[in-house]
Amino acid sequence: MKKLKIADGIHMLTMNVEDILFEGIWEIANGVTLNSYIVQGEKAAIIDGVIGWDGIPETLYRSLAEIGVDLQKIDYLVVNHMEPDHSGWIANFRKIKDDFTVICTEKAAKMVASFYGEDKIRIVQEGDTLDLGKGKLLSFHPVPNVHWPDTMYTYERQTKTLFSCDMFGAFGRMGEHCFDDELTPEEIAFFEAEGIRYYSNVMTTFTSSLRKALAKAKALDIKTIAPGHGPVYRKNPQKIIDDYTRFSQYADGAGKNEVAILWGSMYGMTAKAVDYVESILQREGVKYNRLEMPLESDSEMIATVFKSAGIIVAAPTYEYKLFPPVAAALNELGRKRISGKLAFRFGSYGWSGGAEKELKEIIARNNMNWEFIDSVEFEGAPKQEDLMKVEAGVLALLERMKEKVVE
Ligand code: FEO
């Protein structure tokens, strides 16, 4: 557990969490931080939390003492978002202090009661405030569906600090550097990549709501953005606002100048054409990533397709349909509402086609609105003329994806 001063009277407690599946689904190879904030005036409030995660009250006593906070003055627990990565500590907190008020939105209140049995709750609405004394004034700003319907921003007016919870967050463990002005260029790149993984895995389904939350953030006078996961932005909060604006565009089909090859092969026939495509992309100097399904994790697959301006789907027919691991990947991308991508598909078949039909069904059923270059199918192993058709498709993709590039 690290304890850091954000501003006078505001501290962050943060811990790295490793070896979990985030939300019970997402493999996070680089871990994730859980950030908690304490704002202290005459009274004190904890905003979101990690401080009781180990279930040991003494840890909390010690952490609070080390940052000079009197436990008895913590009268408020601000629950920006009820998802238990931010609220799972409430039950532990009650073990050491019984008289506090939970501050949250109406939708969160219902869940705080059902998950933790809390009943001393103050429901807040847009613009409501909480005066902690000594100039510390919190205001509350609901941002529904970021990422559950209950979410809100908390804003501290004296220091112009936005406690944004999931919004502006990123996966990735933090080392010694927790503020944007401390990060090395490598760490900046790391947290951008982990921000893309986080946004695409957890948030992208709610992109239309995130756009409203972006607008709400832009309307506030912000000096510091303090999210629930990842670094605090105190030097240049506009950087993470710009990143999130760009990520929202990736959700609608834009991407980096990169190609994602989403592929699978039963006996290596389609794989031969994938290898050939790889040689074309190398020749053309285009950055690409191969995602072999089902070997690749869904977390990596979603993040890579999400950030790419061009998608190559390479998969054979299997039992009259699309090779199941690739079909499952596309369905997952559809569930995440990753739409508007530019794509090209090719693949092998044995005695009958059928992959193309299911591909179209998946795209239509999920309202994905992907644009496809004409597909190429070949019987058995790809012949030279098949590879020439595949190359033409790849070159067409590279030409057309230029208009999708947003770096
Ligand atoms: Fe970080 Fe939606 O929880």
Molecular structure report:
Helix 11 (355-365) links the parallel strand 20 (342-349) and strand 21. The protein folds into 2 domains: 2-250, Metallo-beta-lactamase, Chain A, CATH 3.60.15; 258-396, 3-Layer(aba) Sandwich (Rossmann fold), CATH 3.40.50. The chain has 407 residues and is of the alpha/beta class. The chain has 12 helices and 21 strands. MU-OXO-diiron binds at residues 81, 83, 85-86, 147, 166, 228-229.
Outline the low-pLDDT stretches.
none
Number of β-strand runs: 21
Quick one: overall form? elongated
- Could you say which structural class the secondary elements and strand pairing correspond to? alpha/beta
How many domains comprise the coordinates?
Answer: 2
Beta-strand content: 25-35%
Question: What helical percentage do the residues reach?
Answer: 25-40%
Count of discrete alpha- or pi-helical segments spanning 4 or more residues = 12
Q: Give the distinct bound molecules.
A: MU-OXO-diiron
CATH topology value of the largest domain: Metallo-beta-lactamase, Chain A
Oligomer: single chain
Mean pLDDT: 95
Question: What Rg is obtained from the alpha carbons, in whole angstroms?
Answer: 24 Å
The CATH class of the largest domain turns out to be: Alpha Beta
The assigned CATH architecture of the largest domain is 4-Layer Sandwich
Largest sheet: 7 strands, mixed
